[in-house]
Design a protein that fits this description.
The structure holds two protein chains of two kinds. Chain A is mostly helical. Chain A is built from four helices and no strands. Chain B starts with a helix and ends with a helix. The chains are: A mainly alpha, B mainly alpha.
Chain lengths: 177, 432
């Protein structure tokens, strides 16, 4: 099939993004734990006055960092989770239908999903541009939001492409019926 | 067309599309976006799609979900469940039905470090079903026990459902967690009673397990210590106000990881698997949350939740009767849908109703979780039954569904007890 080469590329990108999402989750854990530990050290210092703890401070902007890691984790994992059928779906009724009907329903749902993520990608680009213009930043770290919205846009685009490949395959199946 | 009519059409379209095997989160997002756009115009509709997805994905309060999931996955891959089961097995396995009761106890223990029903059921199925098979247990009883007791994962804290419910309804997650403890213990005891009653009627269902000495019994307690340590550190920190929920989850995950590495129980391969599973599961949850937020905004502009709660509030019926109707709706919904998705979808609609009727929001959360627990074991889409079936393929699906029935009764009894004595749930949070 013609799509194979492109499909392989898309799947590869989805996989790499998935790895990054995993790293983001581990980072969330590490940053928060370190922050809690440092806060504990500050308390110990104020209680016992151990000199070596004097300059230890909680991680600045943990709140913002963790939230943005969460955004990266969720967004970057979307495409691969879709490829692995990791999203919850109700397959109960469709399973009972004839194979032919199932293909048509799949064509419909894949198109609807692709449409949703296509729109999401497009709107995220506009939203990011707006945030960039208004110079909106996070509360403590002054981290600009727009790069993360661009990441969500890119992730949504990849999901839309995953569905585009699926739609092409569905059409092949419909034609060969 | 009136707003209510648009809203009702939206709900019907949503229900139809849900059955088309399109991912639940996508359906909610799409229908919500189209419905919102229809009411408010395309400009605001298109905007809300991007802002809702980004705001949910980057919400700090939701980061608690992947972190608690990570903690559960590390516990799973490092074999804590096996050691919990061994302890319970040695302590109560020697009587008729003892191994099944041990599975319930071990599930309750694992639930205290895991927030998901599927993970609890899957991990315990791999450990306990082979043992019960060895002692010639009825396989329906064995698998049914694990599928049902796995559902304790969302009642005993930490619990993903409580977190989501807390965020949706702006209730304290710490209080919700506390509220789940006593009902969790009560339900575990009811499950054990359900096993006892079955075995008393037909001892052949579950022959006595191996005899153990007192030395073995005392030594087996070491298997409980690490789970107890993790639970104590995480929940202690959370309830005493030292940690926020996110911090409790992060420190818990880190602590669990540290314990697993120190005891050399987590290989690099399993560590990576734990990350991969966590990433996939939390993405699945986040997409549902984002989709449900978009749908929730659509519902809000149609004013259906408010109109419904106003209407129900004026009905000349006893609030308990209305609550029973709500529970019935959840039960039917739970037969077809994943509990988590069902809650995301319905809480924004039913929570205002429960409030208008004067029910305590924390208590309502516990009731919702209990119903979600029924949802994960009722046919035809009882997810836990499929999880256990996936682990123990040689047990027929019908046998497992038959096996969970007595436990379903136990769940109904637990629900009824909570409705009669709300204090079971509200006593501990009241102390806070």
């Amino acid at each position: 099939m013609q799509v194979t080469a492109i499909e392989t590329q898309i799947n590869r990108v989805a996989r790499y993004m998935y790895y990054m999402a995993g790293v983001a989750i581990v980072a969330m854990m590490m940053i928060t734990t370190l922050d809690v530990f440092m806060r504990f050290c500050v308390t110990v210092y104020s209680r016992f006055g151990w000199a070596f703890l004097a300059s230890w401070r909680p991680v600045p902007g943990t709140y913002d960092l963790v939230a943005m890691c969460g955004a990266v984790a969720a967004a970057f994992a979307m495409a691969h989770t879709t490829l692995e059928s990791g999203h919850v779906a109700v397959s109960l009724v469709v399973r009972l239908l004839a194979k032919k009907t199932q293909i048509f329903i799949k064509l419909f749902t894949d198109t609807a999903s692709g449409f949703l993520f296509g729109i999401l990608a497009w709107r995220c680009v506009l939203y990011a541009a707006k945030l960039k213009d208004s110079g909106e930043v996070s509360m403590t770290l002054q981290l600009p939001f727009h790069p993360f919205v661009y990441m969500l846009a890119f992730s949504s685009l990849i999901v839309a492409l995953v569905y585009l490949v699926a739609i092409i395959k569905d059409i092949h199946k419909v034609v060969s019926l | 067309m009136s707003l209510t009519a648009i809203g009702v059409i939206g709900i019907i379209v949503l229900l139809v599309m849900l059955f088309s095997k399109m991912p639940v989160g996508f359906v909610m997002g799409l229908v919500g976006f189209l419905g919102f756009s229809y009411v408010k115009g395309w400009g605001p509709g298109l905007n809300i799609l991007a802002t809702d997805f980004f705001e949910m994905f980057s919400s700090h309060s939701l980061t608690v979900i992947p972190l608690f999931m990570f903690m559960g996955q590390i516990s799973f891959y490092s074999g804590i469940s096996r050691r919990l089961y061994n302890a319970a097995y040695v302590l109560i396995g020697a009587r008729n039905g003892g191994l099944a009761m041990a599975s319930v106890a071990a599930c309750a223990g694992f639930a205290a470090i895991s927030g998901s029903t599927n993970a609890t059921a899957a991990t315990m199925a791999t450990v306990s079903i082979p043992e019960m098979k060895r002692f010639k247990y009825d396989m329906g009883l064995a698998a049914g026990t694990v599928a049902a007791a796995g559902s304790l994962g969302i009642l005993i804290p930490p619990s993903t459902i409580f977190i989501i419910y807390g965020i949706l309804t702006e209730q304290s997650i710490g209080k919700l967690f506390l509220a789940g403890i006593l009902p969790g213990i009560l339900l575990s005891l009811l499950f054990i009673a359900a096993i006892h009653l079955q075995v008393r009627r037909n001892p052949a269902l579950a022959p006595a397990g191996p005899k153990t000495t007192w030395t073995q019994k005392i030594r087996s307690l070491t298997g409980v210590i690490e789970a107890l340590l993790i639970f104590g550190a995480v929940m202690g920190g959370l309830f005493s106000g030292v940690f926020t929920p996110t911090e409790a989850a992060a420190v818990g995950a880190f602590f669990t990881l540290l314990l697993a590495v120190a005891r050399r129980q987590l290989s690099w391969k399993h560590f990576l698997k734990a990350i991969a599973d966590t990433t996939r599961l939390s993405c699945m949850v986040m997409v549902i949350v984002a989709g449900a937020t978009v749908f929730g905004h659509f519902m809000a502009v149609t004013r259906i939740p408010f109109d419904l709660s106003n209407w129900v509030g004026t009905l000349p019926l006893h609030p308990m009767l209305i609550m029973m109707v709500i529970i019935m709706i959840y039960l039917v919904g739970g037969c077809f849908m994943d509990g988590f998705a069902l809650i995301m979808l319905t809480v924004p609609i039913f929570f205002p109703v429960a409030q208008a009727l004067g029910f305590d929001p924390i208590w309502f959360g516990v009731i919702i979780v209990l119903i979600a627990e029924m949802g994960v074991i009722t046919p035809p889409v009882g997810i836990n039954v499929y999880v256990v079936y996936g682990v123990a393929k040689d047990i027929p699906l019908e046998a497992i569904f038959r096996g969970v029935m007595p436990f379903l009764l136990a769940l109904i009894v637990c629900n009824a007890l909570l409705m009669i004595f709300p204090q079971i749930a509200l006593f501990l949070p009241g102390l806070l």
